[in-house]
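Supplementary material to the annual report.
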Amino acid sequence: MKINHKVLLLEIKNFLLGKTVLTGVVSLLVFGFYSFYHGKQLIGRQQQTMASVPGVQKQHLQQILAHGTGKMVGTTAYYPFFYTTNPASPWAKFSIGQRDVNPFTLKVKMLAIEGQLYDSELTNPLTLLVGNLDASFVFIFLFPLLIIAFTYNVVSEEQENGVWKIVQATSNGIGAAIAGKLMVRLAVILVTTLLVFTAAVVALQLPASLPTLKLLIVVVLYVMFWFTVSVLIIALGKSSSFNATALVCIWIFLAILFPGVANIAINNSIPVPEAAETAIRQREGYHAKWDEPKKPTMEKFYAVYPQYRTYPIPEDSYSPGWYYAMQFSGDLESANSSEKLFEKVMQRQTLSERIASFNPVIAAQQSLNKVANTDLTSHIRYLQSVKAHHRQIREYFYPFIFVDTPTESIDWAGYPAYQPKQYVNEPVFAGMIAILVWVVGSLLFSLIFFKRNFIKIIDTQNA
Amino acid sequence: MLKAIDLTKRYGGHTALNNLNLHVRQGEIFALLGQNGAGKTTTINLFLGFIEPTEGSASINGISVAENSQKIKEYLAYIPETVMLYPNLTGLENLEYFSLLAGFSYSKNELGKFLTTAGLQTQAFDQRLAGYSKGMRQKVGIAIAVAKRAKVLLLDEPTSGLDPKASNEFSQIIKTLAANGTAILMATHDIFRAKQVASRIGIMKEGNLQSVIDAASISANELESLYLKTV
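Predicted assembly:
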């Protein structure tokens, strides 16, 4: 099958001069530029907030110190918040993922941690409904529509308006004629993809590094998937209206219905009642302690921190040491369900990754979010780091609480600084392979259908 | 050059073409007259290899169409009722495109000569086909056939919808092609045009070739009477 380069040039000219191309590419660029703006704005606002955190923390502690002067640390330590932040990776502007719904800063007190982990700002439900029009949205949801618009009528339109009969009667190889038309469209689609991606790299200032390359590979594979699906539908040899309807239905199924159904299936197969249960257990554990003897509470605490056993805890009156031990034991009682919560959330993540191998749309979105560190796993890592920081703070202040130290005599800023989690280079190979398998599969079936429906004589009355 | 032997095409219980025996020689124009559904287009499609015969055979230059559907394309060109080409390309580019598909690479001058031979005005060469009239598009269709050096030309209602002047020009061009040795099979409703250009005329009814007349031996009025009596 030899394709003359002049034929390709004429195909390109004929295709590019059509109204679809200009309208499609311009619309996509407009959406693309808006998505860059949106991604930059949202992540920019988050970064601005996070940048203000050290100042806010300092001022807050100064106020606490002023308020607590003359009191003991045990009393003052009830009030301060300790701020943590979840910095955005440079690629989060490209794929916002769950960063708009999950908190990117958490302030925790020295009290029981579990209830504090799930505090988050209220998000406008309308914003959630609409979703984020970020660069990944443009590639995942809008690019398939562009590909459909560019390809649904390849051959079929020519069959409908009569050109195809002349092509068939004239061409030395009908396979080469079809391949030429498809190659031209693929080239325009890939050039548009690279154009929008390059614009994203420049506009979002993505570093020239491996994660950016991974984003590009995922995007190109995903675009190839939609192209090969379109080719498969074209190969069925049906009308343009059939092709357009079938492709839009596939898009609706893969991009909207399937993820929705998969989400319901995942939630039902791995229920996570522990989210609420953990907070309730911790609250119940804490409240019950007020009416219980102090010794059992303290024994639980001493099991983890035996060094404080020597400090006296009066059984018949309030003491700060007991109060913070009681808070800690609330966490201990909810530790099991907390662990289960994280475990089940991770199970859900694993299951959704398995399901993604049946749906390249989910596979691509997951891969982009992984590269951008904006997926659920990344948020879990952040929550774990907050828990670790909470422990560091407690352990810094415990000695001053148990010894009854005056507020003004300690360094309130001397606690170990919060170490934001580093960027994690999450593997996206499985997602890429899943998409690639679909690409190859669609292509093979396309070749079979093309041979059956176009290369051989079709014995129909209207042939 | 173009031969049908007992050529039959059935769609289920319906016989679209029944035992057609036909031989169109080099340099001859054979016109097939008949009403809609008489089997004219089925005959053309069978020679083009677009459909397979139920029985019998169609051959071009001695080569069976059904067995060598790709090979016979080297010999034939086809002009449908309405030549629809690529609207975003110029006449010259359309001709170049189809010539390249057929395996011929010509210079711009050569392509221009083909278009001139087909009767297209020079100033239209570089205009986009979207602005062409039907007659102009038919001329590009002829130029494609000429450029392809087709030995057989299959025409399906080629003058339908053309104004009398364009139709007359078209007739003159295909006569010239026939004079140069091209075998032409033309399906048409136009009795007078058939009489004007054809060497022989076949009248078809319900898939059967009812009669074959030597065009020179009959007047247009007699042909019309015979046609009306037959169909």
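Chain B touches chain A through 38 residues (CB under 8 Å).
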